[in-house]
Amino acid sequence: MQAIILAGGKGSRLKPYTTIFPKPLMPLGDHPILEVIIKQLRYYGVKEITLAVGYLKELLRSYFNNGEKWDIKLNYSNEDKPLGTVAPLKLIKEFHDDFIVMNGDVLTTLNFNDFFNYHLQSNSICTISMYKKPVKIDLGILEVDKNKFIINYIEKPTLNYKVSM
User: Fold this and answer.
1) pLDDT tens track for 58-108
2) Greatest Cα pair distance in the chain
3) What is the spatial distance between Cα 116 and Cα 40, in angstroms, rounded to a whole number?
């Protein structure tokens, strides 16, 4: 099983910490978040990971090297300039027929092996893992008809969205 981890962003929301440190190396307890993810993937049977890196990629390469420490093969795909969220996939030369793509900062209890097998059995082109995200609205919501008459008023609702992981 192959995984591609998108780990090239600047982590702007975590500034000033990410000014000198790439987001995937941000500590989660005693280990960087990306190390936790790599260990999870290895546990669920991933044998090869390609890290799509850009911002401060030298630090990521220095820490993770070739993956031998985690008994996993690590490759790198280098982004010379920011390309956007999934555009770095265009730079990767070797893909297995089926593979996992994920961000380098997503913590989950997802069983990657079950997820991957579900994808294979569904015979789909793409399978996306979802998370139910409740969003509290701190205002009253008006529902109106085509004539702009109020037909319902909902006080400070919580809306539930299915968001991609």
Assistant:
1) 889 999 999 999 999 999 987 877 666 676 677 777 777 888 889 888 889
2) 66
3) 14
Report the alpha-carbon distance of residue 102 to residue 86 in Å, rounded. Answer: 10
Q: Catalytic positions, please?
A: 156
Q: Residue 137 belongs to what domain range?
A: 131-164
Q: Where are the alpha helices (DSSP H) in 44-101?
A: 57-64
Q: Rounded to whole angstroms, how far apart are CA atoms 22 and 106?
A: 14
pTM for this one? 0.80
Gap between the Cα atoms of 93 and 112, Å rounded: 23
Q: Which two tokens stand for residue 11?
A: 């982590």
Provide the CATH number for the domain around residue 89.
Answer: 3.90.550.10
Distance of alpha carbon 124 from alpha carbon 134, whole angstroms: 28
Helix (H) or strand (E) holding 57: helix 57-64
